[in-house]
Every structure is written in structure tokens, then in C-alpha cells.
Specification:
It is a single chain. The chain has 335 residues and is α/β, with parallel strands linked by helices. The protein contains 15 helices and 12 strands. A hairpin with a 5-residue loop joins strand 7 and strand 8.
């Protein structure tokens, strides 16, 4: 067997082993999530509801804490809570012992992550919470642990096998902690009636911020509107359409109500039919698709894509107040 063939076979075997390892990891973590889901619909349901009541009634912020990998999970959960309408702050337990306890007030509620429930670094936060009657919710796998005994509510995670073959690196356990934290955040979001509009206020940047903009924020308006009346002859209407350079022309009646639209396609279809002397009303496509200024930009893009068009007139009470082109949406990062 040639050296090249041996190398190819070795590479194939290594690749197969890597894929098998990855699928085992995913399978074990999926089993952990399935166990958590089953627990939430059974013995964990009442405690989960009690925890939500505490967090929903919190007048201050949700203080999330945890050490090591549990701390990294807690940091993400605090960010998710804050971005979905529940003000939250991550406090590192070691830093808490050196002054950051001052970040925690009597109006706050504590959400502590510790798989073992015996994390030494959490000791001072636990003592502080008991001293000042700060409600404490424990997320741990040990319902009889020190953390659990100090908490008002214990969310006891079911036992699960770590994906690490040595059973040492937190993998399945951190996945379960994160999933439970996300479940808390989303349940709070829904119970508070937190809407996409509220979400947009907290996410003004990046692609997500672009998708949460409104049509009124991006549309052309005023003198930029390509409009003509139903009785305008096409020789004049085409001049307006060319000047506005948006590839279409809105046709309005004497009351300013949008009656139709003229596109490049309409011009091509009527070419040679006395186009230049025809009235706009004779060339237009009646009843064009429209949107309102308060529609989200992402929804407008969906209308444009599903209708295979390039622009939408924006109307209020049937009268055009703007126009939004697919290029406007793409430039704004709406995808």
C-alpha cells in the first residue's frame, strides 16, 4: 500500500472518529435537555412558578451569580434577562467579597448558579442575602446542598451524564443551566407582555436593530415621492418617474388617494400603444400593495419578497406619505 493511500485512510479514520465524538456529545447534551424538560412538566413546575413570581415582583434588578463555568452561564443569562425586559446584573462572587456586595440592594433578587451547590466563593453572597432578606433562587443539581438550604426557591436540575468522557469538564450540566436560564427569561418576557417594539428599544444596533426599525424610519417622503394624477399624460408622467429614480410612479385621484402604480414593466407592456399620449390612469396597475409607516421594516421586506416587487408605497388613510424601496431596506441591514 502506498504512503499516500495510507495517509488518506488515516485521515478518513480520524475524520470518522471526530464526527462520532461530536455526535456523542450532542446526544448526551440532548438527553440532558430532555431530562430537564421532563422535570419542568413534573416535580419542578411548582418551584419554577414560584421563582417567576419572585423575579416578576422584584422592584430592583435580578442579580445573577456563579463561579467558573456556572459563572459564564450566569453572565449570559443576565444579559438575556436584561435584553428581554428584566433588568439584570452579573456579580462575580469573588469580587462580591471585595466590595461588589454594594451592588446588591434589598429591592433586588438573587439567581445563583452552582451545579454542586457547595461553591465556596458563594458564601459571602449567601450570607449577605440572608442578612438583608434579599430573595434567593438557587439553580443546582443538589437539593440538599448549602446553596439550596439558604434559598427561598430551589430549581433542582436532574442528574445527567457529562459529555466529557472523564466526567470532569462541565458540558451537559452547563447546557442544562443555560437552557433553564433561557426558559426563565422567556417566561418572564411573555408574562410581562414584552413586545417586539420593546425589544427594538433595547436593540438599536447591528442587524437586529435594523430589522426592528419601522418603515417610517427608512421611507422616502416629501419631494422625493414619485406621484402623478390620474389624468396626467404619460409624456409628463414619465418625466416625473425618471426624475425620482425609484423605478415606479404612484397615481393619485383628485383627493390625493392612491389609485394605482406605474412600473417599468407597465411601460414596456404599453410600448407602441400610443404610450406618450395615454393618461396615467390607463397605464397604471390599480390597487397596488401598500404598507403603513408603523410597520416594522422586516415585515415590509417580507411583503416585497413575497410579492416579487421592488418598492411599496406607504399610506395613511389611503394617501401616500412615503415610499420604501428594497434597496433602502438592504442598505439599512434589514435581511
Amino acid at each position: 500500500m502506498s504512503a499516500g493511500l495510507k495517509q488518506d485512510l488515516s485521515h478518513t479514520e480520524n475524520s470518522s472518529e471526530a464526527v462520532a465524538s461530536a455526535t456523542r456529545t450532542l446526544q448526551l447534551e440532548a438527553e440532558g435537555l430532555s431530562a430537564l424538560q421532563a422535570a419542568l412538566t413534573a416535580h419542578l413546575a411548582e418551584n419554577f412558578t414560584q421563582a417567576l413570581d419572585i423575579l416578576r415582583g422584584c422592584r430592583g434588578r435580578v442579580i445573577v451569580t456563579g463561579m467558573g463555568k456556572s459563572g459564564h452561564v450566569g453572565l449570559k443569562v443576565a444579559a438575556t434577562l436584561s435584553s428581554t425586559g428584566t433588568p439584570a446584573l452579573f456579580v462575580h462572587p469573588s469580587e462580591a467579597s471585595h466590595g461588589d456586595l454594594g451592588m446588591i440592594t434589598r429591592d433586588d433578587a438573587l439567581l445563583a448558579f452552582s451545579w454542586s451547590g457547595e461553591t465556596v466563593e458563594l458564601g459571602n453572597i449567601l450570607s449577605y442575602s440572608r442578612r438583608f432578606a434579599v430573595p434567593l433562587i438557587a439553580i443546582t443539581s443538589k437539593p440538599d446542598s448549602t446553596l439550596s438550604q439558604a434559598a427561598e426557591v430551589v430549581l433542582a436540575l436532574p442528574q445527567a451524564k457529562e459529555a466529557c468522557p472523564h466526567g470532569l469538564a462541565p458540558t451537559t450540566s452547563t447546557m442544562m443551566q443555560l437552557a433553564l436560564g433561557d426558559s426563565i427569561a422567556i417566561a418572564l418576557l411573555e408574562s410581562k407582555g414584552f413586545t417586539a417594539l420593546d425589544f427594538g428599544v433595547l436593540h438599536p444596533g447591528g442587524q437586529l436593530g435594523a430589522r426592528l426599525k419601522f418603515v417610517g424610519d427608512l421611507m422616502h417622503h416629501g419631494d422625493h415621492l414619485p406621484l402623478t394624477s390620474v389624468d396626467t399624460v404619460m409624456s409628463e408622467a414619465i418625466v416625473v418617474m425618471t426624475e425620482k429614480a425609484l423605478g415606479c410612479l404612484g397615481v393619485v385621484d383628485n383627493d390625493g388617494v392612491l389609485k394605482g402604480i406605474i412600473t417599468d414593466g407597465d411601460l414596456r407592456r404599453h410600448m407602441g400603444d400610443g404610450l406618450l399620449v395615454a393618461r396615467a390612469a390607463d397605464i397604471m396597475t390599480p390597487g397596488p400593495k401598500t404598507v403603513t409607516p408603523d410597520l416594522m421594516a422586516s415585515a415590509a421586506l417580507e411583503v416585497i419578497n413575497s410579492s416579487s416587487i421592488t418598492a411599496l408605497f406607504v399610506v395613511e388613510n389611503g394617501r401616500p406619505v412615503g415610499i420604501i424601496h428594497i434597496h433602502d431596506l438592504l442598505r439599512a441591514g434589514v435581511v
